[in-house]
């Protein structure tokens, strides 16, 4: 029977498709202890959907794709220009991918608000369909040898659907979408503030590493002076070989410290380039800020600082907008319990024909019957839909909306509390580091005086190598403390500006 053949064919196709679904596992690695055998095109691109090509070799190196070779092109920089912090921040905002990603996210959320606003407008759609059927058969009745028939037609329709009134559901949904756009725009601004902060911290770390490198070079020069004095004393018979060896050891240690300082300087440069968002292979001249004086901290009560900061911090503003959005979602969930007034209209045009052809026996004229018809129709409906029973779905959604609103309110409270802690900690860190820098400057001056006196005494045969070496070590420590506290003060100032929501451009010293 024909229908049996059709059922058999469908069954075979279904079995074959099921087999294809299970065979897809062949695209995964064949064994847990063997590398994945990737199939590549002649250009080196991995072929998607290809079966694993197992290999006995324990080689877990992936095939190279030449299209991905090479670092991203560096931005246009002026090699003769010295870049300060403001210049690096400008370069970061135009080169770092995070700013572009945040911008695209903000645009997408804004478009979502536009989609919600489109629900106020009617929905108009057009559709068209064409149908043709044919059939034929062979009859054994006398005088009739063949009978064919066919039918065809076209249908064109335009429909309109318009929700007229919904007790504020669309307004609530639109309000929630607009608040979500505010959250996204705040996040966009926060990304820029965080980028400025990251570049600033990397810039100050580079400045500290540069100062340490300079300090290491000066320490090496001081060690060489002490070594020269020891060798001179030994040459004139007033020193010992032990003293010379001790000073040579100190020089070797200072040279090792110089090499390590050079490596640390290069590491902080790479970190700075990464914060800017450019290739570490980019060569940029960085401005030296070691001679700039620090601006004294103004005596402003921390309570005033906190009060002003809470009104403009991105996380607090974002949490507040999220709370407003959750309240709008509660209103939308409540509106689902109310009726909706709608308008619906349809216009359609139908054209068709039906042909039946009969071929009688020999000697008779063939006959043809043609049936054609056309029709136009329009329908307009205005009505009200009233939700009666949905198994508790709307109640559950409303309960979820209330829970989300309560969580958003608590999140705002927690965000404000965390912000207060961060602001107070940042203010305290800045105050402490400024005081530490002032003390470190005094310590450096005193250590310099002690070293100069110890070296002069040693040259004149009064002091010992122990005294001058100790003074040399203390001077190095004082110099490092001064440079570190200077960088830490700048870092603390930038962190406080970020914590108070004021970091909108390059921080000032």
Task: Describe what is shown at a glance.
This protein has helices at 2-23, 85-95, 97-117, 169-235, 241-276, 302-310, 314-335, 393-459, 465-499, and strands at 82-83, 123-137, 144-165, 285-286, 340-360, 367-385. By secondary structure, the protein is an alpha+beta fold.
Structure notes:
With 509 residues, the protein is α+β, with helices and mostly antiparallel strands. Among the domains are: 51 residues, no CATH class; 91 residues, no CATH class. It is built from 9 helices and 6 strands; from the N terminus they run αβααββααβααββαα. The strands form 2 sheets. A 4-stranded antiparallel beta sheet has the order 2-3-5-6, with no helix packed on it. A hairpin with a 6-residue loop joins strand 2 and strand 3. Helix 6 packs across helix 8. The longest helix is centred in the middle third of the chain and has 67 residues. It is elongated, with a radius of gyration of 41 Å. About 4% of the residues have low confidence.
Give the arrangement of secondary structure elements.
Blueprint: H1 2-23, E1 82-83, H2 85-95, H3 97-117, E2 123-137, E3 144-165, H4 169-235, H5 241-276, E4 285-286, H6 302-310, H7 314-335, E5 340-360, E6 367-385, H8 393-459, H9 465-499
Parallel strand pairs: 1-4
Antiparallel strand pairs: 2-3, 3-5, 5-6
Features of the shown structure:
alpha+beta, four-stranded antiparallel sheet, 57% helix
Helix content: 55-70%
Query: What's the overall average pLDDT, rounded?
Result: 84
- How many helices? 9
The run of helices and strands is: HEHHEEHHEHHEEHH
Q: Supply Rg.
A: 41 Å
């Amino acid at each position: 029977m024909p229908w049996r053949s059709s059922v058999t064919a469908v069954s075979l196709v279904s079995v074959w498709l099921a087999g294809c679904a299970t065979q897809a596992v062949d695209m995964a690695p064949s064994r847990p202890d063997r590398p994945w055998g990737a199939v590549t095109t002649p250009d080196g691109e991995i072929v998607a959907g290809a079966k694993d090509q197992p290999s006995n070799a324990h080689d877990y190196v992936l095939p190279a794709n030449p299209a991905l070779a090479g670092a991203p092109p560096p931005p246009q920089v002026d090699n003769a220009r010295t870049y300060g912090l403001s210049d690096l921040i400008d370069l970061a905002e135009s080169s770092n991918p995070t700013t572009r990603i945040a911008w695209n996210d903000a645009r997408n959320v804004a478009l979502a608000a536009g989609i919600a606003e489109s629900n106020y407008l009617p929905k108009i759609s057009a559709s068209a369909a064409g149908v043709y059927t044919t059939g034929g058969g062979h009859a054994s009745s006398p005088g009739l040898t063949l009978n064919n028939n066919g039918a065809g037609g076209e249908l064109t329709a335009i429909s309109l659907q318009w929700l007229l009134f919904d007790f504020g559901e669309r307004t609530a949904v639109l309000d929630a979408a607009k608040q979500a756009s505010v959250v996204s725009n705040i996040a966009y601004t926060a990304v820029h503030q965080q980028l400025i902060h990251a570049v600033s911290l990397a810039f100050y770390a580079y400045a500290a590493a540069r100062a340490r490198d300079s300090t290491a070079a000066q320490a090496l020069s001081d060690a060489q002076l002490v070594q020269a004095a020891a060798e001179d004393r030994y040459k004139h018979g007033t020193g010992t070989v032990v003293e010379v060896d001790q000073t040579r050891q100190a020089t070797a240690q200072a040279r090792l410290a110089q090499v390590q300082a050079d490596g640390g300087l290069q590491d902080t440069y790479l970190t700075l380039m990464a914060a800017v968002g450019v290739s570490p292979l980019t060569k940029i001249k960085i401005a030296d800020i070691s001679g700039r004086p620090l601006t004294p901290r103004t005596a402003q009560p921390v309570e005033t600082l906190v009060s002003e900061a809470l009104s403009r911090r991105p996380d607090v503003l974002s949490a507040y907008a999220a709370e407003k959005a959750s309240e709008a979602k509660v209103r939308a969930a409540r509106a689902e319990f109310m009726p909706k007034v709608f308008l619906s209209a349809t216009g359609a045009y139908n054209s068709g024909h039906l042909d039946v052809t009969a071929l009688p026996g020999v000697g008779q004229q063939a006959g043809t019957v043609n049936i054609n018809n056309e029709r136009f129709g329009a329908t307009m409906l205005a009505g009200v839909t009233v939700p009666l029973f949905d198994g508790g779905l709307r109640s559950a959604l409303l309960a979820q909306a209330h829970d989300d609103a309560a969580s958003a309110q608590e999140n705002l409270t927690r965000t404000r509390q965390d912000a207060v802690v961060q602001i107070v900690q940042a203010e305290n860190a800045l105050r402490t580091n400024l005081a530490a820098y002032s003390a470190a400057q005094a310590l450096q001056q005193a250590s310099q005086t002690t070293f100069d006196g110890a070296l002069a005494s040693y040259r004149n045969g009064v002091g010992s190598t122990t005294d001058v070496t100790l003074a040399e070590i203390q001077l190095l420590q004082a110099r490092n403390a001064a440079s570190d506290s200077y960088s830490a003060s700048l870092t603390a100032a930038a962190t406080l500006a970020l914590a108070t929501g004021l970091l909108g451009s390059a921080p000032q010293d």
